[in-house]
Amino acid sequence: MTIKDIVESPARLSIFDIVLEEACRQWCDIIDEAPDRKDGEGFANFFYEIFADKEQEYLEGLAELAESEVQGDE
């Protein structure tokens, strides 16, 4: 997966910021135990792995939210 894959999909783009923040939290969470992470090298690949792992979970969450908003409008 690349940024192009994300940008070309409205659904993926809608969760980009959420997953980016999640990946950043995970990357930084163990930065003291993994000092090689301090230069940021490899973060892009790490992000895409997190995105692939979390994408479906977040898409389902957005779908549920949208459905509850529609039901609330009735």
Please tell me about this protein's structure.
76% of the residues lie in helices and 0% in strands. By secondary structure, the protein is mainly α. It is elongated. The N and C termini lie far apart (39 Å). The mean pLDDT is 86.
Concise description?
This protein is elongated.
* Strand tally: 0
Radius of gyration: 15 Å
Structural class: mainly alpha
Task: Write down the oligomeric state.
Answer: single chain
Question: What is the element layout, followed by pairings?
Answer:
Layout: H1 3-7, H2 10-29, H3 43-73
Structure keywords:
74 residues; mainly alpha
